[in-house]
């Protein structure tokens, strides 16, 4: 099981989610010459979300999720400071790969974050 988590910044809640380059190792392979790959992740309620991860054509890949991302943010009412987690799971019996996406709201007291609650 591999996972990547990120505390959301303003751009992450309005346009796209910039993810670490190591996230690419968890995704399905990009087709030869392609700069994007689509994958499906299920949330806590079992709802499926289709995301597209794209990379730059030249230089540092800088992976971002754009397609499907803003709809997910709006549905979960995510804000700056909240956290998102992507989890890749490989079924030992069938070798099938599945992805989960977890949204976590920041727990704030007097403006300071004290932890996160799954939503």
Structure, briefly:
Residues 2-105 form the TF-B3 domain. The protein has helices at 10-14, 69-76; strands spanning 2-7, 17-18, 36-42, 48-54, 64-65, 83-90, 97-109, 112-118. With 119 residues, it is mainly β.
What keywords describe this structure?
119 residues; mainly beta; At1g16640 B3 domain; 8 strands; 44% strand; transcription regulation; nucleus; B3_DNA-bd
What can you see in these coordinates?
The structure is a single chain. This protein is mainly β. The chain has a single domain, classed as DNA-binding pseudobarrel domain (At1g16640 B3 domain, Beta Barrel), CATH 2.40.330.10. The protein has 2 helices and 8 strands, in the order βαββββαβββ. Strands 1, 2, 3, 4, 5, 6, 7 and 8 form an 8-stranded mixed beta sheet that branches. A hairpin with a 5-residue loop joins strand 3 (36-42) and strand 4.
Write the layout of secondary structure elements.
Elements: E1 2-7, H1 10-14, E2 17-18, E3 36-42, E4 48-54, E5 64-65, H2 69-76, E6 83-90, E7 97-109, E8 112-118
Parallel strand pairs: 3-7
Antiparallel strand pairs: 1-6, 2-5, 3-4, 4-5, 6-7, 7-8
Keywords: DNA-binding, Nucleus, Transcription, Transcription regulation
Organism: Populus deltoides
InterPro entries: B3_DNA-bd, DNA-bd_pseudobarrel_sf
């Amino acid at each position: 099981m591999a996972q990547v988590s990120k505390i959301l910044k303003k751009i992450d809640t309005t346009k796209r989610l910039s993810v670490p380059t190591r996230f690419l190792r968890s995704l399905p392979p990009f087709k030869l010459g392609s700069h994007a790959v689509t994958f499906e992740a299920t949330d806590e309620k079992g709802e499926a979300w289709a995301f597209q991860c794209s990379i730059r054509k030249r230089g540092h890949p800088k992976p971002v999720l754009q397609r499907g991302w803003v709809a997910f943010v709006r549905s979960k009412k995510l804000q700056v400071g909240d956290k998102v987690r992507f989890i890749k799971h490989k079924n030992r019996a069938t070798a099938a790969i599945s992805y989960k996406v977890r949204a976590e709201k920041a727990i704030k007291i007097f403006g300071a974050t004290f932890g996160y609650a799954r939503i």
